[in-house]
Amino acid sequence: MATLEQSQAVYEVCPRLVPLNRQQTCWDGLICVKGQDLHLRIELPDDRDHRRAKLLGDWLLNQHLRSYRHLIGQRLQNTPDLATFLSELKNILEHTMQHQSEASKSQPSVTMATQCSQVIGDIGRLGWEKLSSIDPSFSSLQLISEGPNGSKHYITVHLDPQHPVVAPTCTTDLPGETLELHWTHQSTLADIYTQFEESLGKYREFWDTVAEIDEQTWVLEPERPMPSDRSRRIALGNNSSVQVTVDPLYPKMLPEFKFLGADHVINPMRDKLNANLKDWDTGRSLLSNLKTLLDIQFPSPQSSSREDFSEECGICYSYRLEGAIPDRACDNPQCNKPYHYSCLYEWLSSLPSGHQTISKYGFNTIFGNCPYCDVPIKIKRENNR
Amino acid sequence: MATPWPMQKRLQNELLHLQRDPPVGISVNPNSASSTLTLWSVNVVGAPGSLYAGEHFQLQFTFGKRYPFESPEVIFIGGNIPVHPHVYSNGHICLSILTEDWSPALSVQAVCLSIVSMLSSCTEKKRPPDNTFYVKTCSKSPKKTKWWYHDDKV
Ligand SMILES: [Zn+2]
Ligand SMILES: [Zn+2]
């Protein structure tokens, strides 16, 4: 960062911290937190890389930051510039001063100050390399686990104000249920981490299953699968696809299927699958079962290009429309034009000649003609859209 | 619909295609397309061998918010309005694909080609029989006209 920008940015956070030399490698002054002025001096190396900064402070500042050495070191490494670091430092100070004043007022209960130092200690015992981020108020932090094949998994731990008396809540990128924590008053972050890694182990077979699909077929949706995504929409051919939803705990069992595309293409596939269901072999992978039961070779990245299966909608001329991809197609084999559900629905329902039926089951079907070939086409209103 | 239709995307796509790969006798003036792409002007040339061979005409396309679910408004503008039984002297065109036979499968290019072909099939240069009355009484937009379609064979 240029010196002018740096001094400007620092001025906005700590107006009374000033550079002592033109190179701006030495800063001295006051940092104001909760109405208190604390003396702070920062020494930077010649290249002004704030990550190697040396922090010096008065007795009071040192007192406040004594238990947060590691955290401050970590924030120095992970902030993009000096000004950002200073604003995080202010947050940390604000936090500790708040809790120290609370602690002096209310003696007996678990105070936030001890909670903070406990969390810091916990992270130290777990290993700082496993911490991916922490929010300056110490109320949530994210831990990382690297799988054997280089895959990364994250768990976000939200600490309760009553921590550790009240268990933290966790969010993960696991495909199954949320992580059920076993938590006692003596539990630590390391216990959460162990439980997290255990449940990662439970889903290893699931990730292998979907990885095989992701590598060997064209997955149309999701565009960029996340570790928690249980469904894959696999291209079968031009404008036809099958969506499989995998049980993350039993990935080799029969998944849920949904065929999408023109009836003349997908109906025979669906029939074939239903007729061969008895041959599903849980000893083999999901993809290999699918190939056998449908008796097809899936178009693969080795044999085809993605564009072959991402033909744009005949109405809006785009492939992705508000996240959706064309999932309807004209049933006329000579036409086969793909449409977004919403585009086709909008067109058919705007036709004065279009007519709708409402059956006793409440299905609302709109009939009309394909805009391209004039062959009848119909669409059902989907309530979940 | 809460969100705007992707008209912009489709129009960009059409404009690009028409500029890169225009059919013979049709050219879009890229500067004529307004920044919102809702107004274009397209030059068309009468087809060789037709009564309008070599004549230059200018079409103006106006796209509404619901394009391509609704047809664009298309009229002849400029100094040369073709003398044709389906074209009024104010530039309005009586062509069913521009109103009730519109489909989103049509495009600017398809409309231009239809208009050129309408001109080509003409055997006698003359105005519609009701031209004087129509031009005096019609609404500004031909889309508001309830057309009584002239014989398609002309
Ligand atoms: Zn569409
Ligand atoms: Zn069709």
Please, could you describe this protein's structure?
The complex is a heterodimer of chains A (385) and B (154). Chain A has helices at 3-13, 59-65, 69-78, 82-105, 112-126, 189-202, 204-216, 263-276, 286-294, 341-350, and strands at residues 17-19, 26-33, 36-43, 54-57, 131-134, 140-146, 152-158, 169-172, 219-221, 231-237, 240-245, 256-261, 328-329, 338-339, 355-358, 364-369, 376-380. Chain A is of the alpha+beta class. Chain A has four domains: 3-105, Ubiquitin Conjugating Enzyme (Roll), CATH 3.10.110; 112-201, Ubiquitin Conjugating Enzyme; 205-306, Roll (Ubiquitin Conjugating Enzyme), CATH 3.10.110; 311-380, Herpes Virus-1. In chain A, the strands form five sheets. Chain A has a four-stranded antiparallel beta sheet. In chain A, strands 5-6-7-8 form a four-stranded antiparallel beta sheet. The mean pLDDT of chain A is 84. With 154 residues, chain B is an alpha+beta fold. Chain B has one domain (8-144): Ubiquitin Conjugating Enzyme. Helices cover 22% and strands 14% of the residues of chain B. Chain B has helices at residues 7-20, 108-120, 131-137, and strands spanning 26-28, 39-45, 56-62, 73-77. Chain B has a four-stranded antiparallel beta sheet. The N and C termini of chain B lie far apart (41 Å). In chain B, 28% of the residues are buried. The model of chain B has no long low-confidence stretch (mean pLDDT 87). Chain A binds chain B through residues 314-318, 321-322, 337, 343, 346-347, 350, 371-372, and chain B through 1, 3, 5-6, 9-10, 13-14, 66, 68-70, 103-105. One zinc ion is lined by residues 313, 315-316, 321, 340, 343 of chain A.
